[in-house]
Structure of Ig-like domain-containing protein:
Amino acid sequence: MVLFTHAAPPYATCLPDQLRLQPGNSLIIQCLAHGSHPIQFTWSRMGRGSLPAAAETTRDGKLMIANVKQSDGGTYKCVATNHIGSSEAMAKVIIKA
């Protein structure tokens, strides 16, 4: 555990940063961020802007899709933001039957 004694902008990472799934599988990506709290997480999909209709996000940085479809593939971006700045991390999702 790292303790920050001074204010720090977030540093974001995605776990996993690449995911191979088959249609019908569940997708869960966790966006993690270090830095001064509170940190807010925002997910988007590159090139599309909006997330798939079935996507759910949580306050602690998770992106979940219960039943992935072929069209859910792509690169997802998590932006972690606090009062000092923001950081982004990407996760590539590949869906093959």
Q: What stands out?
A: The CA atoms of residues 6 and 36 lie 8 Å apart. The radius of gyration is 14 Å. Strands lie at 11-15, 18-21, 27-34, 40-45, 55-57, 62-65, 74-81, 86-95.
